[in-house]
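Hi everyone, sorry if this is the wrong subforum. Our group has a chain we'd like a structural model of before ordering constructs, and none of us has done structure prediction before. Sequence below.
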Amino acid sequence: MSEASRHSWWNRVEGLGRAVETWLIVLLLGGLIVFASAQIVLRNFFSIGFTFGDGLIRLTVLWLALLGALAASRDGRHVTMGAATRWLPQRLQTGAHVLADLFGALVSAAFGWYALQFVQDSREFGDLLLNDVPAWWFQAIMPVAFALMAIQFVAHAVGRVLRTEARVGGG
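Answer:
Right subforum, don't worry. Here is the predicted structure as tokens:
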């Protein structure tokens, strides 16, 4: 497989991932707004509501937060300490960014590991949410999102190193 076809293949996969992620965020946020509004109207004007409403809203916020964090880490728009590195020479800035990416990967991987343990325990104990639905179905987003964030941070670090080597070697 040529370099160009590998790059093209990866761009298609990445584009599909972005599209799925974006549509999930749009659907969840739209659904959250509609459902929460309906819940408010039902409670305030009719003194009724969905028994599972508050739990569903909390779960939707969890999913939105994790999908948003995933999108932010993918695009390099997560919280950083950029102000602390601006005064460094370019080569040291790159090294600091690589270390920060690797630290982000380590933290995300640790969160992912503990989230996986949490989800496994929830499944083992038979935790239920939203009127008797297994809780781990909804909680599974946590280890998946953190694992994907860890992978993205490593990819950012590798990309920074390769771009630096290309500049130094080619320039």
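For your construct planning: The helical segments are 3-46, 53-74, 82-85, 90-125, 135-139, 141-170. The radius of gyration is 21 Å.
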